[in-house]
Amino acid sequence: MFLFTAACGLLAGLPARAADTTSQEVQRLRAQLEAQMKVSQAIQARLDALEAREATDAKASADTKVQAEQVAAQAATQAKTIAKLEASGGENGSFTMAGGRPTFTAFGGKGTLQIGLQAQFDAAAYFEDNASVKRSGVDLGDGVNARRIRIPFVFRYGDLTATVTPDFGGSPDGRQNSQYLYEANLAYMPFKGFTAALGYLQPNISLQDAPSSNDFMFMERPAIMDVERNIAAGDARAAVGARYYQDRFFVSGFLTGQAYGGQSTTTATSTVGGSGSVTTAISTTQPSNGQQTGAVMRVAGRPLYGEDYDIHLGFSGSKVFSMNQNDGNRLAQNIALSVQPELRVDANKLINTGSMPATGIYTWNPELGLRYQNFLIQGEYVEIGVNRQHQASAGLGGSTQTPDLTFSGAYVDASWIITGETRGYQTARGGFGGLKVAHPFDPGTGDWGAFELVARYSDINLNSHVQRFLAQSVTGGVAGGRQDVIGLGLNWYPNDHLKFMADYQIVDVDKLSGATLQNQTGLRYQAVGFRAQVAY
C-alpha cells in the first residue's frame, strides 16, 4: 500500500511540473520578444530619424545649390558692371588716394598717374670758435633753406613707368645752376625684382644712398658719401642700366654720363707752345665737346636675417672712363672735389681740392649694417682715386710724373627708436629704410607717434701727398682739407607723412694754405639744425 500510494503520488505530480515548466518558457520567450520589439522600435525610430535627416539634408543641399547659382549670377552681373566701369574709366578716368597719393586711373584701369610731394624746410644756427673764424676768414651764416621741394609725377602703364620730378629746393634755396630737375626717366619692370631704367635718375651706389631722403637719420648724408655719389652717380644723372633683387641680395649696374645741367657752354681752349707751356683762352660760345662717361655698380645683401635682426654686407664702386672735356683741343680735363658741411643752410664749402687735371677717377667702398629689433648701426669706408697726366711744371707731356691722388673718408651712425618701431630692411633698395609709426599722434588717446635718437661720427680727408711746410708743387699733392663731424639728433614722427628733426654737430676742419702750407686756415664750430618735413 505504501509503495502503491507513493507511485500514485508520483504519477499525479508529473503533469503539474510539466505545466509549470511550459509556463516559465512562455514567460521567458515573451520577455525576449518584448526586448526584441523594443530594439526593433528603437531601430525603427533611428531609421525614421535618419530618413528625416536625409530629407532635411537634401533640402538644405538643394537650397544651397540655389543660393550658389544666385551668387554666381550676381558675380557675373558685378563682373559685367566692373568691366563697364573700367571701360568708361579709359574714357573718363577715375580718382583715388592710393597709397596716400592722388591717383588718376585711365585706359581701362591699365594706366595710372600718381602725384606726390616731398617738402623739407630747414633752419640752422652756427656757433664758431672766434680764433678759427679769424684765421679762416669764414663766418658761417644762420638762416633757413628750402632743402627739397619735389613733386613727383609717376605714370604707369603695364610694365612701364615714366617718372618726372622737378625740384624747387636746393642748397641753398633753388639750385645754383638754376636747374630744377631731380629725375626724368623711363623704367621697365617685366617681373618682380628686375628693373631696367633709362634717363636722368639716381644710380644705386652705397648703403647711405639706398634709402629715400625722406628716411634719413640726420638732415644730411655724411660728407664723404656726398662727394662719392656726385662723381659718377647722384641726382639727375644721365644713366642707363638695371637692378635686380631678391630677399637676400641686391645687384645693380649703370653706365652714366653727365648730370643734368652739367654741360657747360663756357669752355677753355688750350694750346701747347714750343717750350711745353700751355696757353688757355676762355670762350663762352663753344659748347662742350665731350661729356663725362662712367659706370656705377653695387652688390649688397643680407646673408642672415630674421624677425628681430638683419645683417647687411655690400660693396659699391664707380669709375669715370672719360672726363668732361670743356677744352677746344681736349687738353684740359679737370675735376674738383668739395662738399658743404653736413647742414645745408650756409653755402660755404670748407674743404675743396680745387681744379685738378685728371685722366680718370674711381671710387670703391665696403658696406656693413646690423639691426637688432629697434636698434640699428651701419657704416662705410670710401676711397677715391684720381689718375693724373704727366706734367712738367707748367706744361703737358713733360718728364716729371705728377702722382696719382688718393682721398678717403668713413662714417658710422646709429639709431635707437625709443618707441619700439624698427627701421625695416628694403630689399628693393638693398638697405635700411624708414619706419612705420605704430601709434600716430593723437592727444585724445595719449599717443605721441614715434621718437628716434641718432648718433654719428664722420670723417673726410681731401689731402693727398701733403706735407706741411713743403710746397704742393714739390710733392705734387693737393691740400683740400680734412673735416670731422660728431653728430647727435632727435627725430619725431607724428605719423607716416610728417617728420621733425633736430641735429647737433661738433665740427673740426683742418686745412693748410700758403706757399709752403704753413698756415692753418681751418674752422672749428658747433651747429644746431632743425627740419620740418612732409612727404607722401
TrEMBL record:
<dbReference type="InterPro" id="IPR010870">
    <property type="entry name" value="Porin_O/P"/>
</dbReference>
<dbReference type="InterPro" id="IPR023614">
    <property type="entry name" value="Porin_dom_sf"/>
</dbReference>
<feature type="signal peptide">
    <location>
        <begin position="1"/>
        <end position="18"/>
    </location>
</feature>
<keyword id="KW-0175">Coiled coil</keyword>
<feature type="coiled-coil region">
    <location>
        <begin position="19"/>
        <end position="53"/>
    </location>
</feature>
<protein>
    <submittedName>
        <fullName>Phosphate-selective porin OprO/OprP</fullName>
    </submittedName>
</protein>
<keyword id="KW-0732">Signal</keyword>
<dbReference type="Pfam" id="PF07396">
    <property type="entry name" value="Porin_O_P"/>
</dbReference>
